[in-house]
Design brief:
Elements: H1 2-24, E1 33-34, H2 36-43, H3 47-59, E2 63-66, E3 70-73, H4 78-98, H5 105-122, H6 127-132, H7 136-144, H8 148-168, H9 178-189, H10 193-208, H11 223-231
Antiparallel strand pairs: 1-3, 2-3
Helix pairs in contact: 1-3, 1-11, 2-3, 4-7, 4-8, 4-10, 5-7, 5-9, 9-10
Domain HTH gntR-type: 9-76
Protein name: DNA-binding transcriptional regulator, GntR family
GO molecular function: DNA binding; DNA-binding transcription factor activity
Length: 234
């Protein structure tokens, strides 16, 4: 029984992680139904295990359960969106405050390669890949801050903001300010952490300026096709 419970928990984690990734890259959009029967069949799991995964997703505020209708990808309200944007500012500034004394050539090289990859991806036409790498620079900075709680909080907020972007973004632009990232890195390499912090604040303000609280409708992907692409399992 214990081994079975561990296995069930593992499958729930896999399902939750798959759906979370699909939400972050924009394959699953706000309001999309998370179909328990298809999830159960695709992952070879019971409905109980699937519901456990959906409960995890709801605890991360990425899904919501509607009585007698099932679970759906969360749809943040304008008020929630504003709170998420404000929370991100606080978390990103905390990351910047934690960086002095923690960065050396190795870290700078990783950040530089990340920006190079951003530039390469944004010069192409793969919109999904652009969304997938949008938070890489911020994630790496948060890792270097050395506070795993801060990192987890920022990751959750950024993932939830992908839903905000899907609903309220003015333009379909996933560049996340590559030039801003380069400027932040230049300041960090020069040891000017105050300037780097200011550049990050400007960067976040620029991204927030691209949000308009007007709903948009987009074409929805087939749920099973999304699962197959995310897991490589037909």
């Amino acid at each position: 029984m214990k081994d079975s419970m561990i296995l069930s928990d593992d499958i729930s984690e896999v399902i939750c992680a798959t759906l979370r990734a699909a939400i972050f890259e924009g394959a699953l959009k706000p309001g999309d139904k998370l179909k328990e029967d298809i999830l159960a069949k695709h992952f070879g799991a019971s409905r109980t295990v699937v519901r456990g995964a959906l409960t995890m997703l709801a605890q991360q505020h990425l899904a919501e359960r509607r009585r007698n209708h099932g679970s759906f990808v969360a749809t943040p309200t304008p008020a929630e969106a504003k709170n998420l944007l404000a929370s991100r500012r606080v978390l990103e500034m905390a990351v910047m405050d934690a960086l002095p004394g923690r960065l050396n050539k190795k870290e700078f090289d990783v950040l530089a390669r990340t920006i190079e990859n951003e530039t390469k991806v944004h010069s192409g036409s793969d919109a999904t890949e652009k969304k997938r790498i949008a938070g890489d620079f911020h994630h790496i900075l948060a890792e270097y801050a050395g506070n795993h709680v801060l990192l987890e909080m920022l990751e959750n907020v950024i993932t939830r903001l992908s839903l905000v972007n899907a609903l309220y973004e003015r333009a379909n632009d996933c560049t996340c300010g590559t030039s801003h990232h380069a400027l932040i890195l230049d300041h960090l390499k020069a040891g000017d952490y105050d300037a780097a912090r200011t550049a990050m604040a400007v960067h976040l303000e620029d991204m927030e300026g691209n949000i308009a609280f007007e709903g948009v409708d987009g074409e929805k992907d087939e749920f099973l096709a999304i699962l197959e692409r995310m897991t490589g399992k037909p």
